[in-house]
Design brief:
The chain is of the alpha+beta class and 177 residues long. Helix 1 packs across helix 3 (140-149). The protein is 31% helix and 40% strand.
Length: 177
């Protein structure tokens, strides 16, 4: 019995050490970017993107959205994410219909924070939307999990695909970085 406990203790120690080493060897900061094109004009895509309360109708990641009190004079929203729980963000920049930048605040206590920049460009009769995530993962555990099991573009790709479905389009997502 004593031997089994020692082996189990050694395995737990090795697992914790592995997570710490992977977390420490993974950079805190990252940049990822994905792009997709839509048939609608930039104004039409912009209208859907900036109607945050309407996101639950087309974005498969969120169950609910509510408007919070402004932070530093900027719009503040709280999304209920199916995997992460409450996910707050601030609209840092809004230049209709071409650019919006949102930020998950550092003080949200999530183990990560950063920005998503939405850049819309006219593409013939349609629109190309490029999403860029500039993130910081402060939690060693999240950095290890992210490195081992997650695609840094997955959330952006999901949003771009969901948006295409909303417009009745089969969207091709391109990972830019």
């Amino acid at each position: 019995m004593k031997r089994i406990l020692l082996v189990l203790g050694a395995l737990v120690f090795a697992a914790v050490l592995f997570v710490v080493v992977v977390g420490l060897s993974t950079p805190r900061d990252h940049v990822a970017s994905s792009r997709a094109s839509y048939a609608g004009k930039p104004e039409d895509v912009w209208a859907v993107l900036t109607d945050f309360e309407g996101w639950v109708a087309w974005n498969s990641s969120f169950d609910s959205v509510e408007r919070g009190a402004d932070r530093d004079g900027k719009p503040y929203w709280i999304f209920a994410d199916r995997h992460l729980g409450e996910l707050p963000f601030v609209v840092e920049e809004s230049r209709p219909p071409s650019r919006m930048k949102t930020r998950i605040p550092e003080d949200a206590g999530l183990g990560f924070h950063g920005t998503w920049t939405y850049e819309l460009a006219a593409d013939g009769e349609g629109t190309t939307l490029t999403l860029t995530e500039e993130g910081t993962t402060t939690s060693l555990l999240f950095r290890a999990i992210g490195t081992l099991f997650m695609d840094p573009n997955a959330a952006m790709n999901g949003l771009l695909e969901d948006l295409g479905e909303h417009f009745g389009e089969n969207t091709q997502v391109v990972e830019v970085r």
